[in-house]
Amino acid sequence: MSKSQILVNARKEGRTYLSEIESKELLRGAGISITPTKLARAKEEAISIAAEMGFPVVLKIVSPDVIHKSDAGGVKLGLGSEQEVADAYDEIMASVKQRQATAKVEGVSVQQMARPGVEVIIGMSQDPQFGPVLMFGLGGILVEILKDVSFRIVPLTARDAREMIRDIKGYPVLEGCRGQEPADIPFLEDQLLKVSQFVEQNPEIRELDLNPVFAYSDGAVAVDARVVLESEG
Ligand code: ADP
Ligand code: MG
Question: What pTM, to 2 d.p., does this model score?
Answer without folding.
Answer: 0.96
